[in-house]
Amino acid sequence: METKRNIQLTSAEISALFQSYINDSMSICVFKYMQEIIEDSEIKTVIEHALDVAQQHVEIVRKIFMDENIAVPYGFTEQDVNVKADRLFSDTFCLHYVKQMAKGGLTTNGTILPHIFRDDIRSFYSKCLASSLELDNEAAYLLLEKGLAIRPPAIPYPKKSEFIHKQSFLAGFFEDKRSLTSMECTILYSNIQTNKLGEALAIAFSQVAKSKKVREFMLRGKEIAEKHINIFGSALRKENLPSPMT
After folding, report:
1. Quick one: fold of 11-145?
2. Which in 147, 228, 233, 246 has the greatest CB count within 10 A?
3. Using CA atoms, how far apart are residues 197 and 221, in angstroms rounded to an integer?
4. CB 200 within 8 A of CB 93
5. What is this structure's pTM?
6. For the chain, what are the domain ranges?
7. Percent of the chain, pLDDT > 90?
8. C-alpha angle 174-180-184 in degrees, rounded to nearest 5
9. Euclidean distance between CA atoms 91 and 96, whole angstroms
């Protein structure tokens, strides 16, 4: 039987590890800054856990690349963040940020894992998935405890089972209007939350970026996020459903 030492990494495994290194090295910068500004001790504990997870992941991926004689990505470093900068975000925002990042981890790691076959890499991404779930649970429970959770809209319970009889059902969202499905409500809610997070980050970064081009780029991102929020929110409002709060 081949050992992991003579099984070459596949394109899926290399690209996944590269992506993980970039994402987690960025998270280290963000969470180190948040660690400095947060005043709420409970939220700070969650941030410190998220930081510890990101640091562990970066070290594991770096070692894998070095063992395989693969160039280690530059990623993000301490040169990319000023942890002593003035406060840009509230404690509440930081907790929501962890929740969104954990959601991204669940999605990304869950998508990657079926394409991984080498046992050590598969074990790593299984642990990444478990870490994302643990962080998501911690953030969700704390948001609920503090009355800060922004839940998806509630809808009436179905009273009977029905079948779709025409393919035009799929086009009905855009053309002959029909009621939204529960999945469509969920996707709209999720996209509004993601864009609200992006909007807040873009505003913050536009305030501190030294480069005019970067500031303009961030403000353009803010405008795009606002446009998406309005479009997705209007679809919910037409169904008399609430749009997630800012």
Report:
1. Ferritin (1.20.1260)
2. 233
3. 11
4. yes
5. 0.89
6. 11-145, 168-237
7. 78
8. 90
9. 9
Angle between helices 11-37 and 91-112 (to 10 degrees): 170
- Cβ-in-10-Å burial (0-12, 13-18, 19+) of 165 comes to exposed
Residues 158-216: tens digit of each pLDDT: 888 888 777 666 665 555 577 888 899 999 999 999 999 999 999 999 999 999 999 99
φ and ψ at residue 156, rounded to 5 degrees: -60, 145
Rama region for 118: left / alpha / beta (φ>0; ψ in -120 to 50; rest):
beta
Indicate whether 97 pLDDT > 80: yes
- Which tokens in the block code for residue 36? 């400095």
What is the enclosing helix (H) or strand (E) of 124? helix 119-145
Instruction: Give pLDDT, residue 178.
Output: 75
Q: Which of 128, 152, 135 is nearest to 43 (CA)?
A: 135
100 within 8 A of 92, measured Cβ to Cβ = no
Closest by Cα among 185, 188, 189, 190 to 155: 185
Task: Single out the residue of 144, 36, 133, 53 nearest to residue 96, CA to CA.
Answer: 144
Please, which residues have CB within 8 angstroms of residue 26's CB and are 6 or more apart in sequence? Answer: 75, 76
Counted residue by residue, the chain has a size of 246
Q: Give the C-alpha separation, 181 to 196, whole Å.
A: 23
120: pLDDT strictly greater than 60? yes
- CA neighbor of 112 nearest in space, from 102, 103, 122, 120: 122
